[in-house]
Amino acid sequence: MATLSGRNIVKKYGKDTVLKNVNIDIETGKIYGLIGRNGAGKTTLLSILTAQNPATEGEITLDGQPVWENEASLSRICYSREISPVTLFGPNTLKVKDYLKLGKTFYKNWDQEYADELIKMFNLNVKKRVHKLSKGMLSAVTIILALASKAEITILDEPVAGLDVIAREQFYKLVIEEYANTGRTFIISTHIIEEAASLFEKVIMIDNGEIVLEENTDDLLARAYRVSGEDVQVDEAVNGFKVYHPESVGRNKAVTVLADAPVDGFSDSVQVEPVSLQNLFYAMCVDGRKEA
Amino acid sequence: MSLAARSLTYYLKTSVQYIGYSIAISALIFVEFLFIHSGEVDAFGIAFRMAVSILALFIAMLNPMYALYSPNWYDGNVLSMGGRRKDIFWGSIVKEILFILMGLIIVSVIYSIYGTPEMIPIAVYLMFGSLPFTGLARIIGHKIRKNGRIAVIAIAIVAGLSAAAASMISNSRLYEFDFLPEGGVSMLLYILIALGIYAVLQIFIYRLCSKAMVR
Amino acid sequence: MQGNLGEDKSIYIQISEMIEDEILRDILREEEQVPSTTELSKFYKINPATAAKGINILVDKDILYKKRGIGMFVKDGAKNSIQETRRNSFYENYVKAIISEAKLIGISKEELKKMIDSNLDM
After folding, report:
1. What are the TM regions of this chain, as residue ranges (chain B) (predicted)?
2. What is the pLDDT of residues B185-214, one digit of tens each?
3. How many domains does chain B have?
4. Would B215 be classed as within a structural domain?
5. The complex's ipTM?
6. What share of chain B is helix, strand, coil (3-state, %, to 5)?
7. What burial letters (b/e) apply to C83-96, b meaning 16+ CB within 10 Å?
8. What's this model's pTM, rounded to 2 decimal places?
9. Chain A residues lying within 8 Å of B7, measured CB to CB
10. Quick check: is B30 in a domain?
11. Contact at 8 Å (CB) between A72 and A215?
12. Contacts of C46 in chain A (CB under 8 A)
C-alpha cells in the first residue's frame, strides 16, 4: 500500500491563508471523500497534493518520494480539475476531443476504448468547444478524463456538481465498478454529501483551511449521535462529550455528539439516534458561523 | 514512453498544427490577392509572392503571440495533465525553434521553386529575429499571469500591435536599405546574436516557469 | 434501480440484515450463491469494502460460507440459525417497544393482550 502524504502544508494567497498547516495521508486502494464547504480549501488542497500548484510551505510525497516535478510520482496521479465555464483561458478554448486528446498524450495508461464508451454513455458531443458545454456535460468531460486516465490515484473535484440525478447515479456506479475491477484509489471532493456518503471508505472533512476529520466512514458514524429530549436531561446525558450544534425548541433540545469511541448507552431519559455524514458535517461546520 | 517524451509529443503536435493554420490562412490570402489582381499580367505570381511573404511574417509573429498566451493558457493544460514545469520549459523551446525552422524550410522551398531565392535570407532574418521577441513575450506572459486579466488583454493587444509593427518596419527596411548582405558571416552573426538573446532570456523564463501553476 | 438504505444503522449491518431477510423469505435459498460484493455495492451504491464487511458478519455468524474462486454461498441450516437468533432478540427489539408505546398512550395490559390474541390466528 502506497501513501500520498502532505506534511505541514500552508497555502497563502497574499494575505489570505487558505490552508493552515494541513497534514494528510491518502492510502492507496481506497475511495476517499473530501468534503467541505465552498471555499473551505478543497480545490487548493488537491492542486497542491498533485503539484499542479505550489504550496507556500510544506511537503508532498508519494511513497516517500517528492511529487513536485517528479515523474515517478506524477505519472501515478490524475487530478481531473473542475473546468470553470469562464471562456478565456485553459481548456475552455479547446474542443472536447482535443481536451481528451491531451489526456491521451499525457497519461501513460490512458484507455481510449473506455473513453469512447464513456463518451457514448454520457452522450457527449466531442466536437463542441468546452466552454460551450452545459454544466452537466462539463462534469462529464472531467469524469471521462479521470476514469480513462487509469491513473493509480485518481482525483475528481466536484464531479457531480452539474450532473442530473440519473447521471450522478451513473457516475457512482462507474466509480464502484472501476474500483472493484482495478482497486484504483479515488479521491472525490464534493459538497453533495448525502448521496455519496456510502461510497466513501474514508472521509476527510476540511473546514476553513484545516482538516477537522480524516477517518473511516463507518467508524466515524459509529461514534456520532444525535441526542434529543428535555433540555436538562440532554445536558446531563451528554456531559463530558464533545457536543456540536445545540438546537432548542421550547424545552426540547437536540445536540450532535461526537464521542471518542462508540457509546454503549446514554441515559434512558433521552432519545439517541445515529447521524448521517451530512448532518454530522453540518453540525460540525455550522458552529461559530452565522446561521443562514 | 517517458513523461518528457510524451509532453514533447504534445509540443511537436502543436507546432505542426500551428504551421498548418498559418498555411491555411496564407492560402486564403493567396485566393484573395488572386481576385484583387485578376486581369493583371502576372496576377498569379503577385498573389503567390504576397501570400508566401505573409506566411513568413505570420509564422514569425505567431511564435511570440503564442508565447505571450502560454503562461496563462497552454501551460496550465500541461500541468493539469500531470506534466512538469521543466517539460513546459523544454517543450516550449523545442516548439518555438521547430516552428520557425519548419516555417523557414517551407518558405525557402517555395521561394526556390518559384525562382526567387533572393527572398530566402529575408525569411531567415525574419524567423530568427522573432526568437528574442518570443522569449520576451513569454516573460511578459508570466508577468501578466500574476497581474490579472485586464492587463492580459491590454498587454496582449499592445504587444501584438508592436510585434506586428516591428516586423513590418524591419521587413520594409530590408527592402529599402538593403543593408543586410545575402548570407555569409554577418548573417551567421545575426543568427547567433538572436539565438544568444533568446538563450539569455531563457534563464529568466526558467525561473518564472518553475513557479508555474494552474489557474 | 437503487436499494433503500436507512440512516438508523450502519450500512454494513443493514446489508447483513437484508441478506438475512432474503434468506428468511426464501429469496435466497440454502446452498445458493449470494450476490458478490461488487454486485451489492453497485446495487446499493455503497463502498465495496462496506459490502464486504456486511458479508463478513454473516460469515462469522456461520450463515454464509466461501467457495474458493466462486463466491459466497448460503450455508445449510442458515435459515434456522437466523430464526433462532432473531427469536432471542424479538423481545428486546419489538415487544419492549410495543409495551413502552402502550404505556405512553395508556393502553391497559388486558387491552394489549386482547389485541395480540385476536390477531394471533396466523
Report:
1. 18-37, 43-68, 88-114, 120-141, 150-169, 189-209
2. 788 888 999 999 999 999 999 999 998 888
3. 1
4. no
5. 0.86
6. 85, 0, 15
7. eeeeeeeeeeeeee
8. 0.87
9. 105-106
10. yes
11. no
12. 176, 198-199
